[in-house]
Design brief:
49% of the residues lie in helices and 12% in strands. It is built from nine helices and five strands. Helix 5 (113-123) packs antiparallel against helix 6 (127-137). The longest helix is centred in the C-terminal third of the chain and has 19 residues, at 164-182.
Length: 201
């Protein structure tokens, strides 16, 4: 049985691999396979087991090897092809679709992403109110990701109006980034401090 797992959520894929293959499985780099390696990989037995459990990484990116994959969909082994992405226009996808399970693992959408932009816009006028807004959602956020969203908003602001205030905000955000990566202070304390200062930059 073959399953194809792909997408950006590597943590969820790892869990799905363990759930399907168990804790003990072979790992094969698909990019290093040649077409002549497929018979032993897909049909060959090990000394101790007739059913092997195999994780193959990025085989669909290897055009030479994956052309013959449809010949082996009846493999007796449990296999996962872990792909970074899947080209649904490719011939191999069309040949395998319906024969093997394709499952995408996307990153969960942050329901508060829009609120981060609201917090940044509010902080430009009223830092105290912005910090109060942040306090309501910070338990569901990751500080570095939150900073990244603020940076993207600041870059947009600078592109629309490249004034001194917007430039200072970008400089302060770059300092905040360095502080978050090196300081021993609480990250949310640093972010709150930035939000309080933003209106006076």
């Amino acid at each position: 049985m073959i399953k194809v797992f792909y997408g950006e959520n590597r943590v969820a894929i790892s869990e799905a691999v363990r759930k399907f293959l168990g804790e003990d499985y072979e790992v094969v780099e698909g990019t290093e396979l040649a077409a002549e390696d497929l018979p032993s990989l897909m049909k060959g037995n090990s000394l101790f087991e007739t059913e092997r459990r195999i994780l193959v990484r990025d085989i669909l990116a290897n055009k030479a090897a994956c052309e013959d994959l449809p010949k082996y969909v009846d493999t007796p082994h449990k296999m996962v092809f872990w792909e970074m992405k899947v080209d649904k226009r490719a011939g191999v996808y069309k040949d395998l679709e319906g024969e093997v399970e394709f499952r995408e693992f996307a990153m969960p959408r942050d329901k508060n992403a829009g609120l981060v932009f609201d917090i940044y816009r509010t902080a430009k006028r009223d830092g105290v109110r912005a910090v109060a807004m942040l306090d309501k959602i910070k338990d569901e956020q990751e500080p570095i990701m939150f900073l990244g969203l603020m940076v993207s908003q600041a870059v947009r602001d600078f592109a629309v109006r490249p004034g001194m205030k917007e430039k200072r905000a970008l400089l302060e955000l770059s300092k905040l980034d360095m502080d978050l990566k090196s300081a021993k202070l609480q990250p949310w304390l640093l972010i709150s401090s930035f939000l309080l200062r933003l209106s006076s930059l």
